[in-house]
Structures are given as C-alpha cells and as structure tokens.
Design goal:
heterodimer, A: mainly beta, seven-stranded mixed beta sheet, four-stranded antiparallel beta sheet, B: mainly beta, six-stranded mixed beta sheet, five-stranded antiparallel beta sheet
Amino acid sequence: SAVISQKPSRDICQRGTSLTIQCQVDSQVTMMFWYRQQPGQSLTLIATANQGSEATYESGFVIDKFPISRPNLTFSTLTVSNMSPEDSSIYLCSVTTQGTGNYGYTFGSGTRLTVV
Amino acid sequence: GENVEQHPSTLSVQEGDSAVIKCTYSDSASNYFPWYKQELGKRPQLIIDIRSNVGEKKDQRIAVTLNKTAKHFSLHITETQPEDSAVYFCAAYNQGGKLIFGQGTELSVKP
C-alpha cells in the first residue's frame, strides 16, 4: 500500500489565521481525499483532490474555507482559512490504491489542529 | 448520497468473549466495505474488507459478513483481547469513488 507523509503533525493557531497541511505520497495516485475528524467523532469527507482539475467539495464545505491544491500525482495541500475554534479537529489525507480491483484506502498520520 | 449507520456506539466485553458491530448503508451501488481500527491518537488502520460479490470473509479472529439485499454488514471479533480495545469504523465505497464512514464504535475489552 502507499505510504503517506503528512505535515505538520500538530499545530496551535490563532483565530483568523490560515494553516496549510501537506501530504506527500510515495507513488502516483489518481485520487486524494481530505477528511476531518472532530474530537470523538467519525471521519467526514471534505473534498476529493484531482490532479489537473479543481477539487470536488462535499456538502457543507466550500473552496473559500478549504482551498486545495493538487499540482501532481504525488502531492496535495489543504488550507484551513480564517480559522475559528470550531475548526479544531484532526485533518487527514487519504489515497486509494484503486486499480487492479484493489480499493484499499490508506491514511496519512493526521494533523491535529487547535485554534485558540 | 451514501449514508452509513453504525451500531452500537460503545461496546464493552470481557476478554475472550466475542464482539459484533453492525452497519447499514443506503446506496445499493456501493460495492466495497472496509473496516478500520483507530487507536487513540493514531490514524485509522484497515483491518479487513469485503466486496459486494462476497458474503463473508475471515482473517484469523476477525470476520466480516455482508447482506446485499438488506444492505447491512457486520464485523465479528472472536476471542477478544485487551489490545482489541479501540474505535472501529465501518465504511462504504460507492461508484462515485468516495469512502463514507459510519459513526464509529468504541470497543472496550476488559481483562
């Protein structure tokens, strides 16, 4: 399965600022996904990042708040903009090794964000 | 879109007993159903998965069953051990290429 390096692992940010989270994959992948996991909650899909096109956002998430870049098949960034305490969560990137019938999803180690 | 419901939210068992976690999904086009284990402070780890053309799959003490007609699938852990304590998530993968997660079950195995 793919190996994902995600950084930063954690950060404490002031409200009103922005944080960019990076994910680097050790192999080329078509689709990358960004999830949010609020404290004690499940994983909620924010958006799907496709190389060469704009990200596709899920209901309740907008590009102005969570801009995503996908410059190539091994890298993506998620920015959490104009942060408020409600944005305090763990953010995880994920890739699928879809192809040859294998749908396995692998997750990055996560970014624990605290907004104060 | 897909909706995945997971029960129970918490489950406490004695070491050596079995644990069962159940999930239902809404999108009949979903064709892949993984289960993840998340230990405190760590990323979700895939523990077992099943595809829609299979009714049951087993891997040592862990098994998953799928009922496509009823649109539900279950995780079975036998001979539970304290290290099985974690949060377990079911998920469903649909034709849109998205993995949608259930709400999670916090399993506690008491020695």
